[in-house]
Task: structure prediction
Amino acid sequence: MIKTLQRKFIITAMAAISILILVLLGTINVGNVWMTGRQTERTLAMLAENEGDFPPQMDFREKERTGFLAPPMNEDTAMAARYFLVRVDTDGEIVYKDVGKIASVTEAEAGEFAQKVIETGKKSGRIQQLAYSVTDSNDGRGTVMVFLDVSNQFYGILRILVISVAIGVICWICMLFLVILLSKRARL
Result:
């Protein structure tokens, strides 16, 4: 009877601990994905609004408007962004490609990515490791497509997922030993 009660205690305690760890890790990772996505959206929106450039006088108070966990949008953030842009005229023809801010994409590849976006007709989305945004050009002569490389963000999300799961498994195993030890002491 005591062994049955001990086993039930261990199973119940470990079920509760498992749920707690899953909720904790899920919240951390969902929050990380959400915050990383918001940062990508902010960077892409700023690039699209300024047709591939960061404004010369960036507002350093933006941090206050976005929250304390969001990194500030400043010149360093701008210089770290890897992106390219493609201009398309009103007839849907590519008229300009700028790949000066990214080393991993050639002008030909930039044209191929732009053509894929034109075919989909979407204003924003992702193609491979690139997030993109399509906006009307400031001069009214077509559209501007900005493509932002988000591979570093993806690997950051993956790294936090792997680390948090590894820590969660280690904590779960430690708790299992502790619960077993406490269940043995309880029967004495």
